[in-house]
Q: What sequence folds into this?
């Protein structure tokens, strides 16, 4: 019997060995920006050539600022844009300069005055088109089209939604520290199209975008009384939210935009309330003798993270949207504050103060995986990009001989903790709030 | 007659036992051979349906998805069809007629290039010295930040400044799968191949649930070490999960990176490596 089995095994062996395969586990790679080329968008008539060049520059800057891509200068290109359009792509020439992905496009003025913009994203190694789209718009909207194209490229190459076609509202600061003027200001995420929304007569703080993008909620001091206001960007109208006996602050919209969670301080105690914007009725969520504040909804609207000192030190807590199941998620040394739930739901950003230093950190909603990703003398006010990939915040540093002055600027950082970049603003800036993607 | 036969059978039962067993075993062997051996002999490449060759790269289909107005196809992405409401007004329209619907032929780059550029001949042949010049210039274009990142020596791609925590996030090294490669393909040859691919794999860190983005590819190799075909094994996920799609394409870019073409493989052992399973596992880097 054994002989027979041996015989069969010998008979089958050649076939088994012919099926031999090599198995390789690649567990290490490199983390470098992906070399990408953005060719100027071509206009065969030549009339829109400058526009095509500007669009490529904006896309290039957008992608470069992510830290994930390394756009190569057009001076390195072997094939010129005319040749791309007339002869087609010569992939070997792009491979020769180390390009992995390539963006090409055209602009063309139509008889009705509108501009048609086309773009294509190419996989240079695979020699294939990954995506191609076209847009019709008024020529003055070229910058926004460039942001939309940047979003499409980013999404196709990273798998995540983009964030370039979005805006940031923040507090623009000017004047000496003892007479600081704070105005509400808004700009594109890259600092372009900057404008002021308030005149600076009232002190404004903690602006937050509505998910519908047309409204901003913030706290303002009118007649020395701090209250939460709602500002309509399209009409410029603002209204006070509810007429509460105490002070209201730290407002934040629910993901559907119908509610605002905020704090109400009364008789030395502050608790968290949720107001329905449709009927303006407020509901109390926390009932505790401690200070509960800075509520932020999860993206599904079912839970709220907030800060509280109910455990002795200021820590982060998560509860259901109706105030039940309150549980603590941070247990580290120092104080935790300003929690903000990521739009993609996987992380909560926060500020942590420890041994005289400020940190911005992220933690998973279950309290695991805390990481501190940036620190400074004073860094605060984290806000997520619409795709949950980037954090914006402000950093303040002392200035002057006796450190009597303060310089505050906005920064962004990748959630990996790398690629910190300053966002250009005309002057001092604090309390940023990132809008959702434009619709 | 029936009884007689029965008796006959009964009488020879002991003598017939061994040949019957032999017959049974040999028949089983033939059946197994037919199932296992014949399809293999008939087709060198097993018919795995997860091909990335045609349908994924189909330009017509792709552009139709992004611009539903084209070719009268039903809309699959309403967002691209409707004009944007907020100013400035933007309308996504039919994309241009694709000029280069090139079914990728990973093994023959020049052929694909010619198809893209067709029908007009290449007007600008690349001067070799120009290519080299461009290659030399490339490092100068590196952004300062990117240089800094390269200099940083980190175990994990996720930074942590935690003052009261270990500096580095300790992650458990995943156990390599049991390698069933035959002995002649040595461990050092496997390591060399792994190292070569590692140098070409540019990992995009920070994706959501990145630890789940393990990509398994099956490579069908040419004798010269170039890849003739790649199959993404989890094609269903590739088509439904944009993060996985990006991770898989990052893996594909690694394999078609000029630094990894051809792969360093001993020519005389082609029979052993004409099919290679590669797993790209980022867990160790998170």
A:
């Amino acid at each position: 019997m054994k002989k027979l089995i041996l015989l069969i095994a010998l008979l089958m062996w050649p076939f088994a060995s012919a099926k031999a395969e090599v198995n390789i586990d690649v567990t290490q790679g490199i983390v470098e920006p992906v070399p990408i080329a953005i060719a100027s968008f071509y206009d065969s008539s030549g009339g829109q050539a400058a526009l095509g060049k500007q669009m490529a520059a904006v896309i290039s800057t957008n992608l470069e600022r992510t830290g994930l891509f390394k756009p190569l200068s057009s001076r390195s290109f072997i094939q010129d844009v005319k040749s791309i359009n007339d002869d087609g792509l010569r992939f070997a020439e792009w491979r020769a300069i180390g390009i992995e992905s390539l963006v090409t496009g055209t602009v063309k003025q139509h008889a009705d005055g509108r501009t048609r913009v086309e773009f294509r994203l190419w996989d240079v190694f695979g020699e294939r088109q990954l995506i191609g789209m076209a847009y019709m718009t008024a020529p003055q909207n070229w910058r926004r089209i460039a942001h939309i194209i940047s979003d499409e490229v980013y999404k196709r190459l990273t798998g995540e939604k983009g964030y370039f076609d979005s805006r940031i509202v923040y507090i623009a600061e000017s004047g000496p520290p003892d007479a600081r003027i704070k105005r509400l200001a808004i700009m594109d995420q890259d600092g372009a199209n900057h404008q002021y929304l308030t005149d600076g007569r009232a002190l404004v703080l903690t602006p937050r975008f509505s998910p519908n993008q047309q409204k901003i909620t913030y706290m303002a001091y009118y007649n020395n009384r701090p209250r939460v206001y709602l500002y309509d960007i399209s009409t410029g109208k603002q209204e006070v939210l509810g007429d509460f006996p105490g002070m209201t602050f730290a407002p934040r919209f629910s993901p559907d935009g119908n509610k605002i969670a905020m704090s109400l301080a009364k008789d030395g105690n502050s608790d968290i309330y949720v107001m329905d914007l449709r009927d303006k009725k407020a509901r109390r969520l926390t009932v505790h003798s401690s200070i509960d504040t800075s509520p932020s909804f999860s993206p599904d609207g079912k839970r709220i993270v907030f800060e509280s000192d109910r455990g002795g030190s200021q820590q982060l807590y998560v509860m259901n949207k109706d105030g039940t199941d309150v549980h603590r998620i941070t247990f580290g040394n120092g104080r935790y504050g300003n929690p903000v739930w990521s739009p993609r739901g996987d992380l909560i950003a926060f500020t942590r103060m420890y041994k005289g230093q400020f940190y911005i950190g992220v933690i998973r909603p279950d309290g695991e995986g805390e990481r501190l990703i940036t620190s400074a003398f004073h860094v605060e006010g984290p806000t997520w990009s619409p795709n949950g990939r980037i954090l914006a915040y402000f950093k303040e540093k002392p200035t002057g001989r006796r450190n009597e002055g303060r310089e505050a600027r906005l920064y962004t950082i990748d959630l990996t903790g790398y690629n910190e970049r300053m966002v250009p603003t005309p002057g001092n800036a604090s309390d940023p709030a990132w809008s959702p993607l434009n619709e | 007659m029936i009884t007689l036969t029965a008796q006959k059978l009964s009488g020879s039962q002991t003598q017939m036992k061994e040949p019957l067993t032999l017959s049974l075993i040999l028949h089983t062997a033939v059946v197994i051979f037919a199932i296992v051996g014949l399809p293999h002999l008939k087709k060198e490449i097993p018919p795995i349906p997860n091909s990335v060759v045609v349908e994924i790269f189909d330009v017509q289909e792709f552009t139709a998805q992004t611009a539903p107005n084209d070719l009268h196809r039903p809309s699959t992405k309403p967002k691209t069809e409707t004009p944007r409401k907020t100013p400035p007004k933007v309308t996504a329209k039919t994309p241009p007629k694709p000029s280069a619907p090139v079914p990728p032929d990973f093994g023959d780059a020049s052929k694909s290039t010619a198809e893209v550029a067709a029908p007009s001949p290449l007007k600008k042949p690349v001067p070799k010295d120009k290519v080299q010049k461009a290659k030399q210039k490339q490092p100068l274009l590196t952004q300062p930040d990117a240089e800094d990142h390269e200099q940083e020596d980190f175990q994990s791609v996720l930074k942590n400044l935690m003052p009261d925590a270990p500096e580095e996030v300790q992650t458990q090294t995943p156990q390599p799968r049991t390698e069933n490669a035959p002995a002649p393909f040595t461990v050092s040859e496997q390591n060399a191949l792994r190292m070569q691919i590692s140098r070409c794999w540019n990992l995009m860190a920070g994706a959501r649930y990145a630890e789940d983005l393990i990509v398994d590819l099956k490579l069908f190799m040419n004798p010269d070490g170039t890849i003739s075909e790649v199959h993404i094994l989890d094609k269903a996920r590739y088509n439904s999960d944009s993060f996985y799609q990006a991770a898989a394409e990052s893996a594909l870019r690694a394999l078609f990176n000029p630094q990894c073409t051809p792969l360093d493989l001993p020519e005389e052992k082609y029979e052993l490596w004409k099919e290679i399973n590669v797993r790209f596992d980022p867990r160790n880097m998170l």
